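Lecture 7, part 2: worked example. A protein chain together with protoporphyrin IX containing FE.
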Amino acid sequence: WWKRLPQLAAEAAAAAPLPPPAAGPGAGGGSWLMRWVWQWRETAAFLAAHGSGRGFYHFVHARYLRHGPCFRTALLGRVHLLAAEPSHFAKRYARTAAELLGAHSILCCSHVEHRLARRAVATLFSMPSTAAFTATFDRLASDVIVGQWRPRNGDDTATVQVVALDAALEISYGAICEMLVGKKNRLERVRGEVFAVTQAMLALPLRWVPGSRFRRGLEARKRIMAALREEMAARQHEHDQHGGDLLSVLMQRRRQRHHHPDALTTEEQILDNILTLIIAGQVTTATAITWMLKYLSDNRHIQDKLRAEAVGVELKNNQAGLVTMQDLNGMEYAYKAVKESLRMATIVSWFPRLALDDCHLAGFQIRKDWIVNIDARSLHYDPAVFDNPTVFDPSRFNEEGSDDETVKKKKKKKGPSAAQQRRLLVFGAGSRTCLGMNLAKIMMLVFLYRLLTNFRWEMADDDTSLEKWAMFPRLKNGCPIRLTPINSSSQIPRES
Ligand code: HEM
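Predicted complex, written out as structure tokens:
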């Protein structure tokens, strides 16, 4: 239905006319001469700003101030529409999601509280924290991929079948919880509850119907909150010996809030945001990993090329044999495969925004309180932006251009175009960009590295139907893969 939004918007606007578009003079009506004069005046102003020390964005900013966040202009003979997001749109998830994540969740809280929450949790995404997270994720991934999946008797011809989604969910949950609440925590017992909350986020709000998906989600939330409260109480009791995990940092800042103006001041604020980070980080990343494995199973030549790169990476920066961020820097092609998987999978398909005021967007009149969805998926599959968008081709992100023949034939310019870079919306954009995007890419790269250096894989079931009710599109069968061990000297890192 969101794809029909422009049509619905037009119909509603026709029924109840709103003020005229906040566009430049002559933009809509007037004689052809007036329009022609307007178009060239806009172009001249743009070129003047571009050629001045203020840069072309000054042209945009001046019009933004004059006309508001959405306006029409004309550049070099073509009418353009520019839309900014600041004051007229706020992030707004479905009411069900907001209820399950909590009123203080960074994803659902008010504008003002959001700024505070974003600053408060930012510590989790600092460089040292990200480096520590890389090691943690690798330790957990190696435990499963090397420790459990590789045949123990050394028979390198035996194949193993595993469900990729289950493994990815387990590893990412372990790693994220360790970062949020420390190594030995009470969250392992509520792993299933976290999944139930995610499944309920787009369900009908039938809170009074026993057994309904939404009610099960609410009950699961209660149990997660109880486990987190227990964790907090234990820490207060033990005077918090847990060190650097996020919960410790948030609790400590709360105690010393006179020194920390950014501290979250209530227990609810802390708990809602811990739950949000688990949900925002676990299922999204695990889903992305499974799609990546599927695309690489469908494109064996790319899998082999990636394996050649991975086998060539020497883990030289860590005594324990764990992958570090520097090691990952040597996996350029893998990085592009991750990016391409994220484009094709588009885990978060659309981003909802609430119109705070009547306004106009893309020529449509938008009323206050309407929700406008930015449709990321259609951008990622727009052939005008990504040549042959249905072809999995990591090399489309090469500086020198794609090496896939079908893509190369169509492409005139080399390397990813500016439009392509701009329109890759896998992690959103602007002030609400995904906070965990580096962690997500690291998890995908580490998982890929360990799998490539231990196994070849192919899909064990070709059913491509999608899971019903899933918040993020994923295969119903959980992506079962058949693994054939490769001759490698891979060992479980020492810390595990
Ligand atoms: C492949 C994995 C991931 C994908 C595709 C993804 C995607 C996104 C997208 C598209 C948004 C913006 C949504 C919007 O503007 O409406 C977002 C926001 C967010 N993500 Fe992620 N994400 C991923 C992993 C993670 C991880 C690992 C974490 C943290 C542990 C995380 C934490 C967040 C947070 C806190 C926000 C809200 C930011 C704000 O509103 O200020 N994400 N994510």
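The domain at 91-348+426-485 is CATH 1.10.630.10 (Cytochrome p450). Residues 12-28 have pLDDT under 50 and may be disordered. Keep this in mind for problem set question 3.
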